[in-house]
Design brief:
Oligomer: single chain
Number of strands: 14
Shape: elongated
Helix content: 40-55%
Strand order of the largest sheet: 5-4-8-9-7-10-6-3-13-1-14
Radius of gyration: 33 Å
Number of domains: 2
Length: 442
């Protein structure tokens, strides 16, 4: 035990005699470990954000959505036209009759074309629906308000539940509950405000085709009576009409195991009225969730593999420096061999030095990697806000790295292992020096 401690002491003392060289030698390990931690934290943060956004749509949900066929966008260059497309009430009745095992089936109907209050106005994103949507879409209401109730639907009341962004735009300094605003020329009263939905502009928004924070929900009976099936869009001095009976249908399965089968049956039912399926879309968040998990796993493996190259380069650097050190210390090796040190003693001393370099590099690399990961969430948005970089990315950019324990442990173990593996060859070279020739070396 005393002999081992003496070897460790000698090895560490030799490293201390060449502080700058030892630091530069460990730099490759430091950067390699830091790169692994940063890359994994960014990848894990993006993965969790994407999965959270998709999961927010409901793992047991199926979303049937009307979409304008491709040719409709260029159907005419005139100042007005009406395009009919999407889900119909007949489709909804077929689905209700053919899918009795569905837990919930909720229709949404687009209504209105413009939202106004005072001098504020914006393009409409209003949907008529029923109270069950709150459960199907995992909607939460801010304290003090409520969601739509059955009496609202039965009496076709002019009430509305508005999204968080709508509340911020039209009711900045006041409580929206009980206040009036206009959808086209119709007056509606706010009865509730939705809690902010996290995927504004993210993967979830891309799936549903809009930012849910800008939604306004009114009773579906009110939408049918006051707005009908044609929604007029006014843009740049022209207008266009879209005639859609049902905008979306949320279907909720009892369990995740039934989602894929239920979605396939819903698709077959829709094909009766929409043979080419060009004006309807079937979205299955559960399938997207599983695909996203697999994609992110492959992506993380690729990123970690790239970052691991830095560790390999660091190991090669350690081997090169130690080989040079063997040449410099040939006379020292000869003296120790002459005084009774065995080849194993020489190997142990050099392995202590390489192991110390890689271990110290691993510890410093963990500190650097964790520090960079924690700072990226604030630094990158600040950098993109500078005039030179402003406009490079449209919309709000969020980066939330998540530091994982496994990336720290694995990178440290690999770093220490790399130092030992790449230190073996120089140690063996040193141990095989002939003592007599070594003593003659200048």
């Amino acid at each position: 035990m005393t002999f081992l401690l003496e070897i460790i002491r000698l090895g560490l003392r030799n490293l201390a005699l060449h502080k700058l060289r030892s630091t530069l030698t460990s730099l490759g390990i430091i950067l390699g470990v830091a790169a692994v931690i940063v890359v994994v934290s960014i990848g894990e943060g993006n993965k969790q954000a994407t999965l959270r956004e998709i999961r927010a749509l409901g793992a047991t949900n199926i979303i049937l959505r009307s979409q304008k066929p491709p040719q409709s966008s260029s159907a005419s260059s005139s100042t007005s036209f009406v395009v009919r497309f999407g889900l119909e009430r007949l489709d909804l009745r077929r689905l209700q009759a053919s899918l009795p095992d569905a837990e919930i089936m909720v229709p949404l109907k687009a209504a209105g074309s413009e939202i106004r209050r005072g001098n504020e106005r914006t393009v409409s994103q209003v949907f008529g629906t029923v109270p069950a949507l709150a459960k199907a879409a995992n909607l939460r209401i801010r304290p003090g308000g409520r969601y739509l109730v059955s009496e609202d639907v039965e009496s076709a009341r002019p009430v509305a539940v508005i999204g968080a962004d709508v509340a911020d735009q039209f009711f900045r300094l006041e409580d929206p509950i009980g206040k009036d605003f206009r959808i086209d020329d119709q007056v509606f009263r706010v009865v509730g405000v939705l809690e902010p939905v996290g995927f504004a502009g993210g993967a979830g928004a891309a799936l549903v085709g809009r930012d849910l924070n800008k939604d306004i929900h009114i009773p579906i009976t009110t939408a049918e009576r006051q707005f009908g099936d044609i929604v007029v869009r006014r843009e740049s001095g022209s207008f266009s009409g879209e005639e859609t009976e049902i905008g979306e249908v949320y279907i909720q399965a009892a369990t995740t195991e039934e989602v894929v089968d239920l979605a396939a049956r819903a698709s077959r039912i829709l094909e009766i009225g929409h043979p080419d399926m060009r004006d309807v879309q079937v979205i299955v968040p559960w399938e997207l969730l599983e695909n996203a998990r697999r994609t992110m796993l492959v992506w993380n493996i690729m990123l970690v593999s790239i970052a691991a190259i830095s560790l390999l380069v660091g190991g090669i650097g350690i081997m090169n420096i130690m080989l040079a050190s063997v040449v410099e210390r040939t006379r020292e090796i000869g003296i120790r061999r002459a005084l009774g040190a065995t080849r194993n003693h020489i190997v142990a001393q050099f392995l202590v030095e390489t192991g110390s370099i890689s271990t110290l590099g691993g510890v410093l690399g963990i500190g650097v990697g964790v520090g960079i990961s924690l700072g990226l969430g604030s630094f990158v948005p600040w950098l993109l806000s500078l005039p030179a970089f402003r406009g490079l990315i449209e919309g709000e950019f969020k980066l939330t790295p998540i530091i994982t324990l496994w990336s720290i442990v694995v990178s440290f173990v690999v770093a220490a292992g790399v130092g030992l593996v790449f230190g073996i060859y120089p140690a063996i070279v040193a141990s095989r020096k002939d003592p007599i020739e070594a003593l003659r070396h200048d």
